[in-house]
């Protein structure tokens, strides 16, 4: 057989082109759907049936069960979906992935794609230069579609022709007899190949080509497809490695579903194969085993016979994939709660002290960037958590104000504020790093605006943490200078910090539900900022009079106004966050926005 290293490298390139086409298709649809896809995943999972339907639809749309499962793992990680809900979606994804098999089987072998691909490319590329973002995304999807079938055609071209190498063909024949042992060998090959290339669709395409050329019999090809169902679980497992315990449980649930499904499917394998042969006959198609028999008969086949046998084989394999996935779903869906219990038993979170857990990123991780468009939901949740943790610093600063200086309690609280400030710096960097990684993925225009808004919000929240730390430092300097506050000073500081706390709470409420913010929510924050500024101005005026009247020393007045000024800065940082959200609403959904103007703008 004249098969060179260059041909083998070309085969790898063809597989890569196929995978890249799938990736571009998936990302194009994610960008076109944008918020809609996030809404579907988060809203259509209220019960098992809707979860299954969601899994089928999403996977059929984005053409990848691995990608949809990674999305599910991400949503569980972000707390947007429960483990039980995720199991239903994962089960549905296993049926949805068969849609890809039908596209490859029908378009790849029934339709002459050579006459379609170039005209399709001629339509898709100009769409990429249109102004409308959704049109660009659809163009990207079409380009991915073209690449996918170009890759499929190239795989067929560069797969080695075993018929020209009798010794290899004869050795392969030794393992093609319909025995359970041989079936396990081909099943294992399907597991390994899919785990390496991380795409069951690519494995299906390769196996389909091998079967269509008559090198592998129908039943052994089906065994490889069955093995690919386990191999594809490697992707969500890798995605969950950097996630929290909930994400690991979702990935484990996917593995468990596919492995247990294979356990009961293996003994029934040959019965299902016979069922598929019967279905083929029902549709008036040839016996899929005929292709292998004809290819090995030594007689030359006409092009018409080759086309007939090839389509019968591709139809039968797609039907096998679909029937097995549907039967598995029909059996396993009733044991969803049992799956959840098993996963909870198998995957246990590490026991940590409450204080240690406090400073972990809760919803995002660098290990889950396969679905960039959907990682935004995780980031939004993490930003809200970041704000809630910084809010605790404000509470500590208020407590420190009334804690006797020089005591052990004062020192411990001061150390805790300092520790929180350091953690705040680290969280800002980690969230920003995650958002920058998301931007590196393919995002819609609206999604990029969201990321830009969140980056600005994260910076402002870190400034809030700095201001809380500055209040603590001012109290330390006051003690070192020997200055003392009167009850009047404490009362006014308590009042302005109360206003700041209320503004902070309002801000967090906006961040928790940023996608559904109302103009009333925004105006509430702007009104509170005005209240803070007015009170600061009142304190400034009264401070000068009080120092002149010697109600308290000039040095105490300095520290007093430093804290009042820092509290006013806190209000500014909080309203800057609200401004960012306000601008996002105006840019992304202007039709629902009634301009909520900042009084100071």
SSE order and pairing:
Elements: H1 5-33, H2 35-43, H3 48-62, H4 65-77, H5 83-96, H6 98-109, H7 114-127, H8 133-158, H9 166-173, H10 180-197, H11 200-212, H12 218-231, H13 234-240, H14 245-265, H15 269-282, H16 289-295, H17 303-332, H18 336-346, H19 354-358, H20 375-401, H21 408-440, H22 445-480, H23 487-512, H24 519-548, H25 554-588
Helix pairs in contact: 1-8, 3-5, 4-5, 4-13, 4-14, 5-14, 5-17, 5-18, 6-11, 6-17, 7-8, 10-12, 11-12, 12-14, 12-17, 13-14, 14-18, 15-17, 20-21, 20-22, 20-23, 21-22, 22-25, 23-24, 23-25, 24-25
Work out the oligomeric state of the chains in this entry: single chain
> Runs with pLDDT <50, length 5+?
352-359, 591-597
Order of helices and strands: HHHHHHHHHHHHHHHHHHHHHHHHH
Content of β-strand:
under 5%
Secondary structure: helix percent:
over 70%
Shape verdict: elongated
Structure classification: mainly alpha
What is the overall pLDDT average? 78
Rg from C-alpha positions?
31 Å
Report on the biggest sheet.
Answer: none
Number of strands: 0
How many distinct helices?
A: 25
How far the N terminus sits from the C terminus, by CA atoms, comes to: 77 Å
